[in-house]
Design a protein that fits this description.
By secondary structure, the protein is of the alpha/beta class. Helix content is 44%, strand content 23%. The longest helix has 33 residues, at 59-91.
Length: 296
């Protein structure tokens, strides 16, 4: 049984005539007659008594019509509801982001997105947080998509859009008794002796630093753990320690010195992230496609 069959039945029940019903439904009368016969066969009951060209509902037909009326009312309400939601998706986007994308990348890309005529009425709500919290909110459907660090989670899909090399930052006047990391293992030993400021252990950057230490066979000792580059850079500027952080534009706001790590290749990847198997629709889909197509 299909929605169309129920609509056909409802019309025939109202008109009481196969020919007039076919005209209203804009289908051939033989096709409508066959559809009604198949419906009766499927249900195992007689829906109409035939009196010449007139059709009268049987008691079973009247019982079935009550069900059909409720089903079709729910169906039309569902279509109207989904239509309103689609219109809302066309106008509004909710995006969660790690803080670093707000300083240069996101303002520039958002301005380019709004240059297209079809996007000018779109309203975007941006929110910020750490990667682990953003991902949990994404799973709860708070956001259409998020921009966060690359991470291991089987419930999400990620497309890298930004690659940020990692650097060591120290107070602008340097660190007393330390002259800068040498190459290779000696350089990592020097860094491991520094008073370091790190990220929350459960964060994506916390995991990156943990993996880095294991790869370089060293141990980092952290005096403080903070949520993001901005707070870390502020602590470093105040002389409270040094830190390994992504080389982002926010560092320009602080009096810190950037030093290359003893080995290059370490970086943080910022990814456009969606729930696995989920396709962003409407304006959110256009923005996601725009960002994913402008990888830097």
């Amino acid at each position: 049984m299909t929605i169309n069959q129920m609509m056909y039945f409802q019309t025939v029940a109202r008109e009481g005539h196969m020919g007039r019903s076919a005209e209203k439904l804009l289908i051939a009368q033989p096709s409508l007659s066959v559809s009604m016969m198949k419906l009766e066969e499927e249900l195992g009951v007689t829906l109409f008594d035939r009196h010449g060209h007139s059709l009268v509902l049987t008691s079973d037909g009247k019982a079935f019509l009550r069900h059909v009326n409720r089903v079709l009312e729910d169906y039309r309400n569902a279509l109207e509801h989904m239509s309103r939601l689609a219109a809302e998706h066309e106008r509004r986007i909710a995006v969660g982001c790690v803080a670093s994308v707000f300083y240069e990348y996101l303002p520039e890309k958002t301005a380019l997105f709004f240059r297209e005529e079809k996007n000018r009425d779109v309203k975007i709500s941006f929110d910020t947080g750490i990667t682990s919290e953003l991902i949990e909110d994404l799973k709860r459907e708070k956001y259409d998509f998020i921009l966060c660090s690359e991470t291991r989670d089987p419930e999400i899909e990620q497309v890298p859009i930004i690659q940020e090399p990692l650097v060591l930052i120290v107070p602008e006047e340097g660190v007393r008794g330390w002259f800068g990391a040498a190459g290779g293992s000696e350089g990592w030993k020097e860094i491991s002796r520094l008073p370091l400021i790190g990220y929350d252990e459960t964060s994506a950057m916390g995991q990156i630093l943990k993996d880095m230490a294991a790869e370089e066979q060293t141990v980092f000792q952290f005096s403080y753990r903070l949520p993001d580059e901005q707070s870390i850079a502020a602590f470093v500027e105040s002389g409270l320690g040094c830190a390994i952080v992504p080389d982002t534009s926010v560092l320009k706001k602080y009096s810190v010195k950037k030093i290359l790590l003893p080995r290059s290749g370490y970086c943080r990847k910022i990814c456009l992230t969606v729930r696995k198997g989920h396709k962003s629709m409407g304006a959110a889909g256009r923005l996601a496609e725009f960002l994913a197509g402008t990888i830097i």
